[in-house]
Structure formats: structure tokens, C-alpha cells
Amino acid sequence: xxxxxxxxxxxxGARIVLLTLASGQFxxxxxxxxxxxxxATVADDVNTTVTGVQGAITAYTLVMAMFMIPGGKVxxxxxxxxxxxxxxxxxxxxxxxxxxxxxxxxxxxGWSFLxxxxxxxxxxxxxALVAGNFGVERRPAAYGLVAAAGAVAIAVGPxxxxxxxxxxxxxxxxxxxxxxxxxxxVLGRRIADAPxxxxxxxxxxxxxxxxxxxxxxxxxxxRSDEWGWFRPKPDAPSWLGVSLVVWLMLAGLLLVxxxxxxxxxxxERRGEPLVDPALLHNRxxxxxxxxxxxxxxxQMGVFFVVPLYLSVALGLSALKTGARILPLSLTLLAAxxxxxxxxxxxxxxxxxxxxxxxxxxxxxVLMAALDADAGAEIVTLPLLLIGLGMGALASQLGxxxxxAVPDEQSAEVGGVQNAVTNLGASIxxxxxxxxxxxxxxxxxxxxxxxxxxxxxxxKSTASVELQSGxxxxxxxxxxxxxxxAGANSKTTQAALDANAAARLDGLxxxxxxxxxxxLVALFFTQRIPTTQPRST
Length: 536
Prior knowledge:
CATH superfamily of the domain at 11-191: MFS general substrate transporter like domains
Helix content: over 70%
Strand content: under 5%
Largest sheet: 2 strands, antiparallel
CATH architecture of the domain at 11-191: Up-down Bundle
Order of helices and strands: HHHHHHHHHEEHHHHHHHHH
Shape: globular
Strand order of the largest sheet: 1-2
């Protein structure tokens, strides 16, 4: 393939272009992990709860999932480079807003909405700009470096968040993102725009249907911890005796079905669809996308559950929590880089299956190790296994999806791929949180009811006021609340014991769900090819 005019591929600026695009990927991945070690600190600082911050994290990935596919089409309309740089500006404004946020609504505006919209423009554009700036023979290395940048962000994110929270403030993380965005904007001038054969019109109906379908479905999942999955909680909305969560999820699936039907109609009329329905019949592509979904579901579930155990149950500082998570990040990075380098012709299907089994093994080992007398050291081996599994999947899945379609459809696949990963991340965080709080509540109330040291009046009050959900509290937080309520020492100790046991039950249940998700993923690995694209 001849070099395109204006491409920096053979110039000294090629490394700067790749550095710029990799920095964009780094920035997107950083937000997925940097604040997980600081959830409690952020919640206190903006006067909200852990659930509120969980909602902000999940909403960020939800916004990206909703608008990632339309973001790819916007890039085709205004140019991939323009979409990339515009996305960076929007993302930078969101980071600045988040750094200055005084409360949860402003945090949601900056972190969840503005950063999410910016990311929806940036990430699909990166896929096309790599293809537009580098020839076929150099693209594997370029895509590999971009993917490695995301792995590095996951590796350093917990420590960055821990250092900032311990010695400075979590707000400095987002201020640093603003500086990085400014650097990307300066370096981005060297990027050559990816050529497009046409300037398609944006399918507005498809955009509305896809965003509404994904949004309604995941919103239902997000509300499950407050409203109940099937049986409505007290004072929660319901219809026909069933929690509104079920109806929202069904409505979301119906909207997604209508979206696919609409796209098929657009193709029949020779229009420009938001997503070509023919892509969904590509066995290799759908196999890769399914694996991406499960990888990010488990990944973000783990990054929500483990920091809560370390920071709340064990009371570690944000810095120590980040340091304890580092083994996962290191093995993730090592596997993502070293497997393609030393095993270039290995079967992708075999690597993916081994990666999934590593995820399952890590979750089960950690679940078994959780104990009232356990310390922070118990997370090391499980996190090594989980990181190894994540890295193994990351080393193969990008190549699997991109090689499944012609080059001219790479940007479209990039949008779908990023939408699927962010959807998986949203559901993984929400599902793990909902299961954790649900089991925590039932276990705590059962322990309180059975305790002879807790008065019957307290039991009755607890069963009524806490039926909708027990917050994930540390022993210190619960003791302060009980002292304010005037509880005696015997009642306080009984409640602390019940809370400690219930916390572990909730954590085990969340990890069990993540382990189950890993096993379910194994059933879809048959769609992954057995040979590398370049070896066929």
C-alpha cells in the first residue's frame, strides 16, 4: 500500500503522531481505574455516598457506550482528526469541571457527561487515525502500542489515585488530565486526517434508538440496588408487582431490536446506516466483541469490589490500596505486551480460553481467601491471576475484531467495539455493586435479628429502616453512627460483628457473580479463530 500524501508515516513526526494517539488512549483508560481507590474520599469530599460515586463512575462508561457508535459517524462527517481534537477539548472541559466540583451533580456533569461525550468522539477516531497515518505493514505495531498505552493507564491508575489522594487531593488527578489534554492538542497538529471515501449523513433515528436502548437498559441495571432486581423494595416503583428494573431492561432490549430493524431498513433503501447489520453476522467479529464485553464486565467489577475491601473493610489508605492492586496491573501489562512479542503465531482461541480461566481462578481464590482475620496480603495471588487473564485477552481481542473486516470498516468496528466494552464496564460495576449491597443487607439484618445482645426495639427499627439497603460502612463509620444514636457497648459490639460478617458475605457474592460471568464467557470462545491473521 502506498503511503498517502500528507501522512507522517515516513517522516520524523511519525513517532510524535503515535505518541499523541497513544496518549489519548492512555487518558481514556486512566479514568476507568484512577478513582477506584479513592471512592470513599471522593464521596466524603462532595457530600455523597459510595453508591453516589459508583453511579458517577458507571454513568461515565454508560455515556460512552451510548454515544460511541454515533461518535464514529460524527468523525466521518467532520473528519477523524477534527473529531479527535474536538473530543479532547470537550474532555478537557469535563476534567476541569470535575476538578472543581463542589457536589455530586457537578461531578456528574463534568466526569460522567462531558468526559463521556469527549471519549465517544476520541476513541473511534483513534482507530481510524492509526489506519490513516500508518501503512498496512506498520499498523500492527501501532495498534499494539496504543493498546499497551491503555494497559499502562490501568497499571498506574490505582497508584496515581492513591498518591494524589494521600498527599494532595483527588482533584489534582483531573487537573493533571487537563494538562495532558493541552499537550495532546499541541502535538495533534502533526496528525494527518484519515481519508474517507464519502461524507455520510448521520442517521438521526438510528442514533436516538441506539442511545435510548443502551441507556434505558443500563439505567435499569443501575437502579437495581435501590429498587430491587425483581421484587420491588419498600417505596420503590413497580408495575404489576414487578420492580421497574425489569421493565426498564425489557424496554431497552426492545429499543435495541427496533434499532437493528431500522438499520436493516436503511440498508435496503441504500442509505448510510449507523451500524451495518451485516457486521452482526460476522462470526469472528461477534466472537471478539462478546469476549470484550465479558472482559470489561469482570475487569470493572473487580476494580470496584477489591478497592472497597481494602479501603473500607481493612481501612487501608488510598495509597496503600493502590499499591495492593498493583500486582494485577503489572501482570496485565506484561501479558498484553509479551504474549504477542514472544508467541506471535499462538492460537488466539487458546490464549483467550486460558485468559478466561485465569480470571475465574483469580476470583475463586480471592473469594475463598476472604476471612474475618485475613489481611491485605490475601489479594496478591488472586490479583496476579486476574491481571494475567486480562492481559491475555487484551493481547488477542483487538487483532481478532479488526482483522474480521476490511480496512475501510475499521472505524465502524472501532465504534462498536468501544461501545461494547463500555457497556460491559457499566454493567460489571453496577452488577457487582448491586449484588454486594443486596447480600450485605440480607446478611446484616439476619445477624441483627439473631443476636441476643441487640434489643428488640433496635431490631424492629433496623428491619424497617434498612430494608432498602445497608450502606457499605467501615467499623469506624458504623461505630460513630451508633455512638450518635446512644447505643450501649454491648449493642455496638454486636452490630460491629454483624457488619463485619455481612461485608464479607457481600464481597464473596460479588466475586461469585464475576467468576460465573467468566465461565459463561467460555461458551462463546468457539467463535475466536485458531490462527493469527498474518499466519493465514
